[in-house]
Amino acid sequence: MTTPSATQDSYPYQNEPVWSKSEKAIARKAFDAALKRELHEVIQEAKQMASQIKQPSDLWGLEHYLTQRRKEIDHKYDYRYSQLTHVFGKLLQEGRLGEEDLSGLGEDKLKSIRSFAKFLAEMEAA
Amino acid sequence: MTTPSATQDSYPYQNEPVWSKSEKAIARKAFDAALKRELHEVIQEAKQMASQIKQPSDLWGLEHYLTQRRKEIDHKYDYRYSQLTHVFGKLLQEGRLGEEDLSGLGEDKLKSIRSFAKFLAEMEAA
Fold it and tell me: pTM of the full predicted structure?
């Protein structure tokens, strides 16, 4: 891609909303907080699992758990502006973010985020 | 391989010693004991590492440690009679088995085991 990002911001692709400076700050804060909380959960779970290891199968169960969680987290936390409404939609649906964390984002983005969260919830219920 | 193992035992490949019933019992016991001790060490180390996790890099460090140890152990503990003198040689060199654990094996096998242990020790010193 040879287009400089400044130009991209001025002429965004269709359906890719422009993120203002203040929205970027809100997004970064919400994203980092959710990631930090999720990593903290994994750390607590790993400590708990390790403390209960009694046999080799428990040990390799811990390895498997860590590998799966690392892959899931790597995949989920994708901080590209083109992906952020999906990322936040998923975090909203999982209860890892609340609407209050996203307060200050433009209504266009909130609408996309809520819509994707609803879609995921319906997928899960199906 | 279509040759039944009974025939293989009667006509072993050159340099592949035949293991008598009593030698097989000694080998199995020594192998299982070394594996059990090594797995116990990994379990203790994993518990220790987990208890000291403070940040995500420690968490993924634990995952990496477990993956490496699992691969090493899978590779090292190869209970094929064609491989056993190498396996025991390595365990002897690592101090995971003593000569006393192998007592009762034929002199031909002990010689191969000691010779491989010596080779590994020299490799390490080089």
Answer: 0.83
